[in-house]
Hints:
By secondary structure, the protein is of the alpha/beta class. Helices cover 39% and strands 15% of the residues. It is globular and about 60 Å long.
Amino acid sequence: xxxxxxxxxxxxxxxxxxxxxxxxxxxxxxxxxxxxxxxxxxxxxxxxxxxxxxxxxxxxxxxxxxxxxxxxxxxxxxxxxxxxxxxxxxxxxxxxxxxxxxxxxxxxxxxxxxxxxxxxxxxxxxxxxxxxxxxxxxxxxxxxxxxxxxxxxxxxxxxxxxxxxxxxxxxxxxxxxxxxxxxxxxxxxxxxxxxxxxxxxxxxxxxxxxxxxxxxxxxxxxxxxxxxxxxxxxxxxxxxxxxxxxxxxxxxxxxxxxxxxxxxxxxxxxxxxxxxxxxxxxxxxxxxxxxxxxxxxxxxxxxxxxxxxxxxxxxxxxxxxxxxxxxxxxxxxxxxxxxx
Length: 340
């Protein structure tokens, strides 16, 4: 696994030393890989004098590293792009409940934070239905459940069922509808696929634009990136698609998040809390919104103007921790139904 020190010198992992708890540094185990974040960390260092050391890796690998390192881990803050992973890390006792007047003042919505403060959402993205403007009318499809209807035979596009985005959506549907109904939905979805699941969310959107399918599941920030792209061909893709926020007349649209939690054994826990507070500040939240087309979790900060143009929407109120709770069932359901 590569080790990168974003602020300061690049060092080998073994060179990270456990100095005094008051050392002016904070070690972040990070599975977010966005350039915007580097500027956020840089601003934090300029404001506080605290150096941010970033250890990058896959979320599951980082969780396993935390477990194997135990009390000797140099990690102070764990950041990842899936609420299920955050909730699982908290359940395994890897994260410390953390709060402060500053954190509480942000008023992060209850569904985007752990009740005890073990993890906090940093930014969110909605799982929407993208449709072809020239072949689909937006009132033809209103819910995730509609994707399983026979009307959409051979018209649905999605990425792999094993991807965290797909797992989280299925887990959220189990939380809403139960396992039996969700399995029937997955079977209908699979029966309606235009092609075997392949590629990422951007690939699904592009496939809708060229007519390989009529509708697709995708996260809003991929749509936003195409709309604001410097490449004319990507903006042309965005011009051919529309966005539906599903389930607005019942439970609301599924959202997942990027989030962070202070590691239970953090040698620099106070610095980790300060960095977490900074990540939820209006300044950092503006950068998440504008630099990566994510929805801020700080209610005082508005989304990027292009995302706002997609329309306001009701979020599903279920706490994101349920994604981890129902993931084992989601895996079984998706395997039986053939969403590979």
